[in-house]
């Protein structure tokens, strides 16, 4: 039986050059490393501004995002252009996934202005409106033929309330087709049981390299009961040293033993790699791919 675990990235990559040149460098490095499911490198802007700058109700000034009015679905989106360029560059060597900043992170990392019709950051309508806007965004991407989506919610690991995010995330996941992943970096202590119950999501993408406690937080039975697969973070997104193939293999092996190979969808870095030097990022991806290939027999 062929190995089904794929290699992917979480998203951001060291920026080399501007515009399409930066995307070209990010894509080429991922292809050279042998990544199966690549990103466009998220090179244009930060993860919130990338969406806030064209969704009505948001404003971006000096790199800071503000909620200034009722948030509405956008009529057009820039991301499909970047994704289409990445797809052309990949030339069939890898699939390309769309990475969407989640509704809770969009809200928590933006300043809520008095002009906006929301009572506070606890207003459920705020998350529903952002969610509706992101559904429209994803559907514009889907029209261009992209079928792999990752929703990023780093705010869940730093205390953002899951009760506000769950309905908003389910609205997105159930509004699009294809393979749908949720990425949360950091520790999932107190969060995993709520995350695994989110409807419409296929994959939970989690950091294990720098958050070893997640081996205690993530439960195999819950994954299987709710029909979810795991994405395993196995290289650090902050450490400037390139992990050895052996060190990476040890994390993959531990995850396979704890959760079963059949419950692992992919391996990837813990988070985005943008803060690292380009050669370091390339080395991490290359060793990650080689580690997985070296475990092919074990993971069949």
TrEMBL record:
<dbReference type="GO" id="GO:0008270">
    <property type="term" value="F:zinc ion binding"/>
</dbReference>
<dbReference type="GO" id="GO:0003871">
    <property type="term" value="F:5-methyltetrahydropteroyltriglutamate-homocysteine S-methyltransferase activity"/>
</dbReference>
<protein>
    <recommendedName>
        <fullName>Cobalamin-independent methionine synthase MetE C-terminal/archaeal domain-containing protein</fullName>
    </recommendedName>
</protein>
<keyword id="KW-0479">Metal-binding</keyword>
<keyword id="KW-0862">Zinc</keyword>
<dbReference type="InterPro" id="IPR038071">
    <property type="entry name" value="UROD/MetE-like_sf"/>
</dbReference>
<dbReference type="InterPro" id="IPR002629">
    <property type="entry name" value="Met_Synth_C/arc"/>
</dbReference>
<dbReference type="GO" id="GO:0009086">
    <property type="term" value="P:methionine biosynthetic process"/>
</dbReference>
<feature type="domain" description="Cobalamin-independent methionine synthase MetE C-terminal/archaeal">
    <location>
        <begin position="22"/>
        <end position="292"/>
    </location>
</feature>
<dbReference type="Pfam" id="PF01717">
    <property type="entry name" value="Meth_synt_2"/>
</dbReference>
